[in-house]
Design a protein that fits this description.
The chain has helices at about 1-25, 80-85, and strands at about 30-35, 35-40, 50-55, 60-65, 110-115, 120-125, 140-145, 150-160, 165-170, 175-185, 185-195, 195-205, 215-225, 225-235. The chain has about 240 residues and is mostly beta strands. The protein has 3 domains: about 1-45, no CATH class; about 45-135, no CATH class; about 160-238, no CATH class. The protein has a 12-stranded antiparallel β-sheet, with no helix packed on it. Strands 1-2 form a two-stranded antiparallel ribbon. A hairpin with a 5-residue loop joins strand 5 and strand 6 (about 120-125).
């Protein structure tokens, strides 16, 4: 009986120590809750990357800093990319396959793939380049792609040199169709494009976008190709 009683006391002490340790973890240093300092470290996952797969085992969500490599992703598989995009981007066109490996394909944030491995949504910093070519700078924000991996919409900031541009864009099959832009270097405005025409409402800095003058522009401008067909500049001197 004495041995059993001693073992029970030891068991109680160990059990109590475990409870105290758990209490210290939960109520230790950290965030404030009801006047108590709470340590949430046991609720935080610290890792470099996460890959989420669907019920078929296909990689669908990549999260990381940078996002992890995925064997199912078309953009990082040159053979699959060539098979998927060669008709719209032949070697003789604006996209050169010998430059494909130079495209930035990583990101710090999250990338969602479809069941076929095409990029569909990217959110984060240092966003991937479009599959059609390099960006003019490092982008932060969100991009949305169609079911073939072509970028069709986006919102964010992009750093060009030491300056930032903010933009919201929507693309059609010809390229950028609708764009809201704000930049100290370019101006502020709305640009509408189709395959032949361009319409700009806003303020443009000299010799930027459609403004080919050495003077600032504020108003609207309609162009066909490279030729300005009509414009109204409220800043124009009379």
């Amino acid at each position: 009986m004495k041995t059993l009683s001693r073992r029970l006391r030891v068991t109680y002490l160990i059990f109590g120590a475990i409870l105290l340790a758990q209490g210290a973890l939960f109520f230790g240093t950290g965030s404030q809750a009801g006047g108590e300092t709470v340590d949430n470290s046991d609720k935080i996952i610290k890792t470099r990357g996460i890959i989420i797969v669907d019920e078929q085992g296909r990689e669908r969500v990549l999260i990381g800093a940078p996002i992890p490599q995925a064997k199912n992703r078309v953009f990082t598989d040159k053979t699959r990319a060539l098979a998927a995009w060669k008709d719209k981007m032949p070697e003789s066109g604006k996209f050169y396959w010998d430059k494909f490996d130079e495209l930035h394909k990583a990101s710090v944030g999250m990338l969602i793939l479809d069941e076929n491995g095409f990029d569909r949504v990217a959110v984060g910093d240092q966003l991937p380049d479009a599959n059609t070519g390099r960006r003019i700078g490092s982008a932060t924000g969100i991009t949305i792609h169609n079911d073939k991996g072509y970028e069709r919409a986006g919102f964010g900031t992009i750093k060009v040199g030491d300056k930032f541009q903010v933009g919201l864009g929507m693309d059609d099959e010809y390229g950028e169709a609708l764009n809201l832009f704000a930049s100290k270097d370019l101006g502020v405005g709305l640009r509408i494009n189709d395959s032949k025409n361009q319409l700009i409402f806003g303020t443009l800095e000299p010799n930027k976008l459609g403004n080919k003058s050495d003077q600032p522009f504020s108003g609207y401008m309609f162009s066909q190709g490279s030729e300005v067909k009509h414009q109204f500049n409220v800043l124009q001197k009379k």
